[in-house]
């Protein structure tokens, strides 16, 4: 292996590792879907900061967690946990809902 190739490989490994380390530091919030509702219904998140949401589906059937602004959509089978990362939000309220339980599965992020 030439020195240039070894240097390129090392830089590539560092570049790939940096985003993983940055994601590990994201504030993470858990929302549980159960009995057609989300708990908690209100999640306070830091404004102007990327954050991660972990959604756990404890419903007997599937759930679809969705936000319009910013747009995110996660479909979860029963018993499944998935995560998504949100971009920094300006201070304000951002509703979320469950597509499969529209009447009861509602909540909001409050960015402060």
From TrEMBL:
<dbReference type="InterPro" id="IPR008972">
    <property type="entry name" value="Cupredoxin"/>
</dbReference>
<dbReference type="InterPro" id="IPR028096">
    <property type="entry name" value="EfeO_Cupredoxin"/>
</dbReference>
<feature type="signal peptide">
    <location>
        <begin position="1"/>
        <end position="24"/>
    </location>
</feature>
<dbReference type="Pfam" id="PF13473">
    <property type="entry name" value="Cupredoxin_1"/>
</dbReference>
<feature type="domain" description="EfeO-type cupredoxin-like">
    <location>
        <begin position="9"/>
        <end position="111"/>
    </location>
</feature>
<keyword id="KW-0732">Signal</keyword>
<protein>
    <submittedName>
        <fullName>Cupredoxin domain-containing protein</fullName>
    </submittedName>
</protein>
């Amino acid at each position: 292996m030439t020195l240039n190739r070894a240097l390129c490989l090392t830089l590539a490994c560092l570049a790939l590792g940096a985003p993983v380390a940055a994601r590990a530091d994201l504030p993470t919030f858990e929302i549980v879907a159960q009995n057609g509702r989300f708990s908690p219904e209100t999640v306070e998140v830091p404004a102007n900061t990327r954050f991660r949401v972990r959604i756990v589906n404890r419903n007997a059937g599937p759930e679809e967690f969705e936000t319009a602004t910013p747009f995110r959509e996660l479909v979860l089978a029963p018993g499944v946990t998935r995560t998504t990362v949100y971009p920094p939000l300006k201070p304000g309220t951002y509703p979320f809902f469950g597509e499969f339980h529209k009447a009861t599965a509602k909540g909001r992020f409050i960015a402060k």
